[in-house]
Design goal:
Blueprint lengths: L8 E10 L8 E2 L19 E10 L2 E10 L3 E10 L7 H18 L7 E9 L6 H7 L1 H9 L7 H8 L2 E2 L6 E4 L3 E5 L6 H40 L4 H35 L3 H12 L2 H58 L2
Parallel strand pairs: 6-9
Antiparallel strand pairs: 1-5, 1-6, 2-3, 3-4, 4-5, 7-8, 8-9
Helix pairs in contact: 3-4, 5-7, 5-8, 6-8
Length: 345
């Protein structure tokens, strides 16, 4: 294959968003695979089709598929066949897909501040080892994976392309943060795309969770400043106890979800699906996200513990003063009664 030859393929771009709606679904998506490697049971709920339609993007017909993963996750998937998937105009096509997919997400009232986008470049029109195709077009492939128009350094290109996995002699999947290249002469792309969507869904959930706990940390820090300056009212103390329960619930749910994913990976063992999913999660740094969230949750618990201690001390002091004041009132009343008795004798 000449270095300037075209590489025919399909660009599959998907966008994952969060919604509070529960859209009507038509059917459960059934991923049909050629590989005998099993899928991940119970990592996320089955993807259900909301609708399928065609739209025009950059003067090209594009297939759009909207899927729903309860609770509250919408995936918009766009697919377009390209005569040359390495054409520089692919960047413009991808940008058009981003705009169109985001428009569809807004139809389902998805949070505009949180979504995850990812591009999968699927190539089936080749013979033999795909590494021959990759070696001839490695600069263009690495550029698409990085969504980078400028020429990349040779070392950066080689580092990007090394993050790959093979199953059969004639297939290969390269994974990066922003996209993946999947080479399979049999066109068995659906299972790989499903795993990429699962990983991006997990990343989106972690981003939302991190934002939530960081906001809670800011509120707790301000509250700690208040407690060191003055006593807390009873109403605020109830809010503290409620916040502590919420933090415990968040940590519990996060641990259960994380352990659930790891459990399912261990069940599959060394199957291709498990190894590919592990590769994707490492490239998306999901463990780093979880570690950072756990550190923030630790800080939250420490702050609220200090607030609770300050409130307990304040409450004890207030109670002691109230008791002392009560005894003082009793003493004053006793002396008044004593003087009244002495006066009328």
């Amino acid at each position: 294959m000449a270095a300037d030859s075209k590489v025919k393929g399909t660009l599959v771009f998907f966008l994952v968003g969060i919604t509070e709606l529960s859209p009507d679904t038509a059917e459960i998506v059934d991923i049909k695979k050629i590989k005998s490697s099993p899928s991940y049971p119970d990592v996320i709920p089955k993807q259900m089709v909301v609708k399928a339609e065609k739209r025009t993007v950059e003067n090209r017909q594009v297939d759009f598929l909207v899927k729903f993963c309860p609770p509250g996750v919408v995936i918009v998937e766009a697919s377009i066949d390209l005569e040359n998937i390495l054409d520089p105009r692919v960047f413009d096509i991808k940008q058009g897909l981003v705009i169109e997919c985001r428009t569809i997400l807004w139809d389902y009232h998805c949070d505009p501040h949180f979504d995850e986008e990812y591009s999968v470049y699927c190539v089936a029109d080749y013979q033999g080892d795909p590494e021959c195709v990759i070696s001839e077009h490695k600069a263009g492939i690495a550029g698409l994976l990085k969504t980078e128009r400028i020429p990349l350094d040779e070392e950066e290109i080689d580092t990007t392309l090394k993050f790959n996995i093979k199953y059969a002699k004639d297939d290969l999947t390269i994974v990066d943060w922003d996209g993946a290249f999947v080479f399979d002469p049999r066109g068995d792309f659906a299972s790989n795309i499903e795993l990429l969507e699962i990983a991006n869904l997990q990343l989106l959930k972690l981003r939302v969770l991190e934002h939530d706990v960081e906001e809670r940390l800011e509120v707790a820090a301000r509250l700690l400043q208040v407690t060191t300056a003055k006593r807390l009212p009873l109403l605020r103390s109830r809010k503290i106890r409620h916040s502590l329960r919420e933090i415990i619930q968040i940590r519990t749910e996060s641990i259960l979800e994380s352990e659930g994913i790891e459990r399912n990976i261990k069940l599959i063992g060394d199957w291709y699906s498990a190894r590919l999913f592990d590769l994707i999660t490492k490239k998306l740094h999901l463990e780093t996200w979880r570690a950072n969230i756990n550190k923030t949750l630790d800080a939250l618990e420490d702050i609220y513990s200090m607030i609770s201690e300050n409130f307990s001390m304040s409450f004890s002091t207030t109670l002691e003063l109230a008791i002392a004041f009560g005894w003082l009132i009793l003493l004053i009343g006793y002396f008044l009664l004593f003087f009244l008795e002495m006066r009328y004798r």
